[in-house]
Amino acid sequence: MKATALERIGQGIIVILLLLMCVSIIYPFVYMLAISLNTGADAAKGGVYLWPRSFTWINYEIVLGNQVIRHAYLITIARTVVGTIGGLAITLAAAYGLSYKRLPFRNGILTYILLTMLFSGGLIPFYIQLFKLGLTNTFWVYVIPGLFSAWNMFVMQKFIQGIPEALFESAELDGAGPVRILIQIVVPLSKPMLAALGLFTAVGHWNDWFSGAFYVTSQNLIPVQTFLQQLLTAQDLSAIMSSNQNQEALARSSMDNITLMSVKMATVMISALPILAIYPFLQKYFAKGVLIGSVKG
Length: 297
Known about the structure:
- By secondary structure, the chain is an all-alpha fold.
- It has a single domain, classed as MetI-like (MetI-like fold), CATH 1.10.3720.
- 70% of the residues lie in helices and 0% in strands.
- The chain is built from 14 helices and no strands.
- The chain has helices at residues 5-36, 40-43, 58-64, 67-98, 106-118, 123-132, 150-161, 165-173, 178-189, 191-207, 210-214, 224-232, 244-252, 260-295.
- This is Putative aldouronate transport system permease protein.
- The chain crosses the membrane at residues 12-34, 72-97, 109-128, 140-160, 258-282.
- Belongs to the binding-protein-dependent transport system permease family.
- It is found in: Cell membrane.
- InterPro entries: MetI-like (IPR000515), MetI-like_sf (IPR035906).
């Protein structure tokens, strides 16, 4: 059917609005990249919006030359990998077990899990619990508290319940037990959902600065986002000018060419680019997995 003039006008307005939305999302990253690749003193004069006017790598040399941020990167990568794999394993196991309608006390368990989504004990009781468990000021404070997500479990359970029961029944007739059914049937069919939930979990771990700021006191255990939060609230460059490599970078560049803002922009770009590079490869699984897990039942 041929679109009417009014429909074409409406589609044009939608396209324009979407383009404006895309520009509003992309431009801040372009601006930060331009500032990070520009000498600080020149950028402070203003007028740098889309590309660097006085190109330099010195801001990235200073950031990457800092031992604290390099170690923070290792902490962030480790917690993201361990936390995502562990979270998916526990979420899948819980969702698979609770998908069996004949499971004793199944409704009571589901109700109890639902209550944890609606009510929370608060920050102070949670901190006391972490302290009593010996998790504060350790690497595992980033991993263990987030291993189970009630929301992810319900979405995963909904997806598993959408798998035809005939597959489970035929596997049971062939002598397959619950573990074999999980590994050979549920996991292969759940790849889109696992990718979507894995992306949710990984982004949550990568962007979390709160845990490092409140549950850890050792500077050797802070993740990169906590370091970034400390840098963004800093008043001078003393927090990032400690290593020998930074001193060498300063020796090759006048201090007038470096500002706190330019170093901040370089740190923001370094912390954001890895997750932005991974997201496009998982986007199709993200949309497909969430849609299937939300609708199937």
